[in-house]
Amino acid sequence: MMNLARWKVVLVVLATVLGLLFTLPNLLPAKVRDGLPAFMPKNTLKLGLDLQGGSYLLYSVDAAALRTERLNNLTEDVRSTLREKDIAFTDLAVVGGEIGVRITDPGQIDTAANLLRRNVGGSLPGAAGGRDTRLSTAPDQRLRIAFVPEAFDAEVSRAVEQSIEIIRRRIDQMGTKEPDIARQGKDRIVIQAAGESDPERLKNVIGQTAKLTFQMVDENASAQEAAAGRIPPGDEVLPSTDGFAASYVVRKRSVVTGEMLTNAQPGFDQNGGGSLVQFRFNGIGARRFGDVTRQNLGKRFAIVLDRKVISAPVIQSAITGGSGQITGHFTAESANDLSVLLRAGALPAPLKVEEQRTVGAELGADAVQAGATSAIVGLVATMVFMLLIYGGLFGGISLIALAVNALMIIGLMSFIQATLTLPGIAGLILTLAVAVDANVLIYERMRDELRAGRTLIASMEAGFTRAWGTIFDANMTHIFSAAIMFSLGSGPVKGFAWTLFVGVLTTVFSAVLVTQVLLAWWFRATRPKTLPIA
Question: Which domains does the chain have, with CATH numbers?
């Protein structure tokens, strides 16, 4: 105690000052915070959905739709690969989750099989030299191609990660700041948009796949043949929302895709007087779009959004500037929403709404008030207990350490912008309520050492050194419990686990180090003959 290391004093002072500095913005009005110098922290506690109010959405990735899309794309790859090498085939179709094709010439079966093995599909993630498809032969000159299970699992996982980033960009562009978006389980995504009062608009923007493609209209296919189901190979029938036709027969192969867009903005048609969407392609998209329009003058191309034709204009001239317009029955809001979707990018797979909740801000205000009241009552009870049991000096030092602890918790959460939830408030109250446990262990150990006849200095030293093992073991179990809850839990459980984890770290620091420094200063200043708690 007499030879207190200087680094301990510096660490305690630094932690107290930083805790106060980062906690201060939470106590200041918004106008005052905005007027603070640039070097001063301005972040406040980030309130969760249950405290601030807003929208809660739980989505799942439509794995079946993702599998269907991948199989359809693979079917077109098989078709184009065989045609390029002039290998005749029939009966190309998806059956039972596999792609089947019959090679007309028996002498070309081995050639076709080797060609498809090399050119269809891709590499298998995590497997050196592995392929994500397998090819097998069947009777009657048939070949079968299917995805390996590991490849599709990886595809679903990748779709979830991509969807999270795209959803975040969409919500940010809507003006909803700091959404809480997290993965849940294998194929689910939890979205908590605090402060968003219109969950339906949020759901419309988030849930729309927004896959934009530009596909040529097949001018040779009549509507009567399409209605009768006689669709040429390589074509498909897509419904239309342009107001001119109920559906169009278009080529399956996209000439340009939405991934090639670099920008999309809402605009106003000076001629027609309606809203529209202006877009611009990157270099590859502009070159490809220019070539297609140059080669198909007088023909129509379909602008397809989520497998619905929203416009099918006639190509009047080559469009080589890399920009264009999408016209249709847009309102100002729908044009803006479509622009947001196109700028953020398309979801890799459709999302299904599993759960939707709206939380009112009034509930959050009541919860904050109830939490504050609980915290005050708990702190007052703790103060009274420590002062009655250990007196004004040692009890007061414990309370100072408790105040430093609270500053560190709130300051740290404000600094890293951790979300404070209603269960998080419960964890915070619990942390502060049991924070003095370490002080009780230290003080009681000092008493035991004094009763055993040891000197005052030796008793104080033993109070910290011999109680440390018990304090460490007790708090390590808390840390392990909090880590397990945080890693396996979700939503409210994570909020509780986070504040509990941070609280344990700051509690050990304040109850041991802060108390030790304060008692050392007191001892050096007064040189007591006895301890007030003896």
Answer: 6-47+360-526 (1.20.1640.10), 63-153 (3.30.1240), 208-357 (3.30.1360.200)
